[in-house]
Here is the input.
Amino acid sequence: MSRTSIVAGNWKMNLDRGAAEALTKAVAAGRDQAGDVDVVLCPPSIYIGTVGTALSATSGGSPSGVGLGAQNMSEQASGAYTGEISAGMLVDMCCGYVILGHSERRTLMGETDELVAAKVKAALTAGLTPIVCVGEQLAEREADRTHEVVSTQVRGSLAGLSADELAKVVVAYEPVWAIGTGKVATPEQAQDVHALIRSLLTEMASPEVADGIRIQYGGSVKAGNAADLAAQPDIDGALVGGASLEAEGFLAIAAAFR
Here is the structure.
């Protein structure tokens, strides 16, 4: 099966409103160089409206070819959850994607596989495409526990999903030791884990479903290393952090996955 690559920019807690608008317009203006790759922007939640409006304005009100996503959401549909944002609210703001289980959420906010699974279910129910992150810490890789850790996270974070639901998920492998450090897994290291994830998805659903699920790589992806990652058979795009804050470099990453 031919999979359409997906490159998503995770802006994390960066930029102000003016910079978010300018970056959005620059990405939309150069989006064609990415060809048939799905390009997604995930700004801080407070700027989702700004980015969505900029995408519409840039394209004259027609689809811009750039998807809009969020960096997190609640597993709850509504209620007394001060500071939280629901899947329905994201859909109402024209989001199509949401990043769930990012290593920073797991490490800094204590999110568990069980909580991530609940969020994934809520996202799918609302019609969002969840980008579900998994990955090992440096100490776990050095202890040769990468496969064990990633397997546990994949099974736990996607628990309870039907084959049809799994088919709508994007998985992002992000070795925690490579995020924002300038280190990057070698293409061979990344491919090894991506192949593991696809084999797990085969067990959880079927070979046909697993073959259609897109698995991104995330971890200090830059224009200079994107092509080598893109050449691997099970790497279907990138979840880009720091390099997504500059349009030219981000678009060059996307173009590498054409």
User: Anything to note?
Assistant: The CA atoms of residues 180 and 244 lie 12 Å apart. Strands lie at 6-10, 38-42, 66-70, 97-100, 129-134, 170-173, 215-217, 237-240.
